Amino acid sequence: MCLHRWNFCNLSALGSEQSWKRYFLQRSHLEIKMTKGQSGGYTCKSLRGHTGRVVGLVYLQGNSSQLPNLQSSNAIVCSASSDGTVRAWNVQNGGLLWCSPVQSPLTGILTDEECKIVITSDSTGLVKTWQGQTGQEVASYSTASPHCTLLQYNMNNGWFLTIGTSQGSVCTLAGCSLSKKSNVVVCDSFTVNLLLVSPDKKWIMAGTTQGADSSPKVIFSESLTSSSGDEGPLSQLVPVSGCQAAVFIPTQPARLAVIHHSGNRRDNALTVFDVSIKKMKYKIEIQVQQVESFPLMLSAWSSGLHLAAKSSNCMVLAAGEQLWLYSLKGVLLSSFKDHTGPITSISVDSFRVVTASQDLSLRVLTWRNHRDGGLTLESRYHLLGGSHTMARGFTHVACDYSSIVASVEGNDGKDVLKAYSFTS
Question: Which chain positions lie within coiled-coil regions (predicted)?
Fold first, then answer.
């Protein structure tokens, strides 16, 4: 029953203290609570302390959907703010675990759950790494860029951080000590604000959403992370322009979906590419081959566009107040308009989709399998974030298996985190 419902790899990981029967009942009850969202099925904590805008929030330690700990959950979320601090919070009890010293306003945050490392960037271009358990600073590196897009990944037993800058370049650092490996220009005169790594870690996609004629690039990651070679990195343009959003399909080695302008630039399309390498006698070529392309019912420059991929044939797209579910061939599987204000952030995992909106609500939708094996979404319930007399709406949302954390923009300039925890 457990294998059929949750595709476990290893039931022995449950240990001797908990039988699979007890686990099945506890997890089933937890999922019922997460599906219904009724009063009493969850607790809500307000995490206060920031004196500025929250610019990002990420889980440092989450409860995995693969094999969640149903007895206790010690989820930790980290938030970065324009007040110049990083704060780490216990999601269940709302307690502050640590707060970093004040620096210039922060602009971005990432975590590496495996190494328990927090990465931040600030408005002066200073990138720092922090020890996740204690908040101790580990290292820093100055990019001299007021805007940094952060991407962390592990490959070939190495730890790497690639940074997109406002000068249009991509800088790659190695190790938590942040030693420089490479710096290459990707889109001259535009900010690199799109930065993705493929599931097989062989490819980095870098681009901008600012240039109508600009095309993103796919770069062979080893040519960014190795110090050798005086030639530039091995890269190839993705044959689209006016890129607005992109995502790698998580269940494929290197399949890339891009939303971009089409035709006379008044319309948008979503095009899917496979990225591969072709070795010839005297050189190596990158191939970016189109798999599918279809039009989208969006205006040319839709602000606040969010794109995420669930599986090899399922993509979630949000723009304005609406949410769409598309197959990779362009079939509209379902659409929703549950919000009365623009969607500002989305979180997609194996159990649910959560949308955050300026209408000061979160909408929870859960996945359901069709008989033919396909997926669809069911819209379930709202989680409310307070009153509009105190706040302007939700700005960011993140989830682990049994909790949801979102930031609320305060009218007084002091943002608050809302942590919703579900228990079995």
Answer: none
